[in-house]
Amino acid sequence: MTIELTRRTLLRLAGTASLALAAAAAARAEGTPTAGAGTIAATAPGFAGSTPIRCGAIGLRVRDLDRMSRYYQSVLGLAVISASADGVTLGAGGVPLVSMEARPQAEFEPRNAAGLFHTAFLMPSRRDLARWLVHVARNQTPLTGFADHSVSEAVYLDDPEGNGIEVYADRDPRLWRWEGERVVMGTHRLDVDGILGLTDTSRNDYASAPTGLRIGHMHLRVGDIQQSESFYRDAIGLDSTSRRDTASFLSSGRYHHHVALNTWNSAGAGSRDLAKTGLDWFSLEVADPALLTAQRERMARAGFAPTTVEHGFESTDPWGTRLRLVGV
């Protein structure tokens, strides 16, 4: 399989005819303006997980546990950490990342409800992203778009029950451009050839996820941006890194974003129906015990009533999505 054949395969899997149209699809996925191709060079991994607060794991309510588990294993290369008749936990390098709870009678959560927009899985390196791209191309995995976001290079797809997924690699944070407290992010055509040039496209050597694969950020559908910021920024203590009328991006330690919030399809959404499928909970990890204690006090003062869970506490956002802050 040549590089050119792989690029055509990826475009076909994304249901588009050109890199520009694939970037436009990714722009719809991230709500960022499109522009020409970027020229910034490769990544230095690890920044997303080195900040005072970082993404941990997610919990999903699923109708078809076996099918969903097989998808995350075969497409992302996650390994089974624990399993029962009612649920499974998958991860990479022995670290739990995705827990699924079987809800076989549940209705699917509509895409105009508050909830999960996508879970973004961060590859340790650009070469790992290249190896994964060959993997999905050779396995004919449907994609929904791919793009260069200036700070990162990203590919989008949906799992069998409609939960959005992003797989991406960060660029070296020293190459990110900041304008004051705002990081410059855009949506450009992805340099597929440049990425694939880092690996052997004639074979699939992505047998399992790299041990350093982690969730880099969470992107949520919400009903109101200002109300969502009152929880994720003011109560949780994340910093704003970019904001528009219909989207907000927040992070810890000047990462480009650990949490994104949008109202593109969900403006005015009410409380989620927790009997339906979709995101049940997600966690943010806090390395400093003193910070974790301070965060609990901060949430209590903001009126969000944290309750104790293993290694930390949890509260619910204004639409019923559970957020856990846990020590590591």
TrEMBL record:
Residues 54-170, 214-328 form the VOC domain. Gene3D superfamilies: 2,3-Dihydroxybiphenyl 1,2-Dioxygenase, domain 1. Pfam families: Glyoxalase. Keywords: Signal. Residues 1-29 form the signal peptide. InterPro entries: Glyas_Bleomycin-R_OHBP_Dase, Glyas_Fos-R_dOase_dom, TAT_signal, VOC_core. CDD domains: VOC_BsCatE_like_C (cd16359), VOC_BsCatE_like_N (cd07255). Coiled coil: none annotated. This is VOC family protein. It comes from Bosea rubneri.
